Amino acid sequence: MDFVEHAQCLREEVDRALREALNFSGECPAKLGEAIHYAGLGAGKRLRPMLVLLAAEACGGNRDAAMPAALAVELVHAYSLVHDDLPAMDDDDLRRGRSTCHRAFDEPTAILAGDALLTRAFEILATKIPSPEMATGCMAVLAKAAGAEGMVGGQMQDLLATAANEEASDAEKERQLEAMHCSKTGALFVASLQLGGIVAGATAAQRAALLGFGEKIGLAFQIVDDLLDVAGNETQIGKRVGKDDTLGKLTFPGLLGISESKERARGLILEGCTHLEHFGNRGTALRELAVYLGERDS
Ligand code: GRG
After folding, report:
1. % of the chain with per-residue pLDDT over 70
2. Which residue of 219, 242, 256, 285 shows the fewest CB atoms closer than 10 Å?
3. Cα–Cα dist 153/34, whole Å
4. Total domain count for the chain?
5. Sorting pLDDT into bands at 50, 70 and 90, what band is 233?
6. CATH number of the domain residue 247 falls in
7. pTM of this structure
8. Which one of 151, 224, 240, 243 would you pick to mutate in the ligand 1 pocket, going by the greatest count of ligand atoms within 8 A of its CB?
9. What domain range includes position 154?
10. Ligand 1, atom 2: nearest CA belongs to which residue?
């Protein structure tokens, strides 16, 4: 099986489990339930859950035991997309090839659906991971990565950067851009790999290797995301392109140019993959995923 087929199988497994995880049996109002399903089950790539599952396998664990952690990361990611698209944030109308959640429903419902996806993530970690130590370990890692010192903090840096720092040197702008992406996007990539490690009972050395790998590929992913915003195909990507430029955002292609940005992404992926040597053959699927991240067109 080549990596594309492997990734498709993983995506289908994740989607089946996601559907079940978003099946609210209690008193969830129907409209809220619909918005949660709409945002949580849209046609995303499911990269973060794949990272969780493949990291667990690289550390000698199995996919079934890692699935609750994989779902939790995907739900946090889905919430962040809903809130990122809101008028007060990026004000987008297209996501995953269809209307954003607040356009398909309304703004208050989208805010609440995002909140419910976020809280469901932690409910799943608390109730579906049998070992209490592993469950609390996962909750601590995911909360930190998603919060003020991670994704939410990175989003704030992004909002502040748009208007400020005009005077900064290119080197300083690059440093700020990397720091912002490390928090906004990279933290959840690193957390995905760490969660896979935790549920597989990884050693400290294995977790350090996953961290080294995650930091590099998280940044490479974001550089490719910036490149797709400049030169990608809106239908393939499923979201508007050219937004960064319209919003006056600092981006890697804006700062380094297109070919240097591509070179940078390639270099980061190669560097990241050196950390996978620690896992021998068990790291192969993570390596293939990293290569895919660099070459993706959506
Ligand atoms: C609490 C208001 C509030 C906000 C939460 C919105 C937010 C904090 C953070 C934004 C983080 C964010 C949306 C980062 C963008 C990362 C990114 C490039 C997402 C696209 O990821 P893909 O390509 O998406 O993996 P798919 O659709 O494939 O899952």
Report:
1. 99
2. 242
3. 29
4. 1
5. confident
6. 1.10.600.10
7. 0.95
8. 151
9. 3-295
10. 83
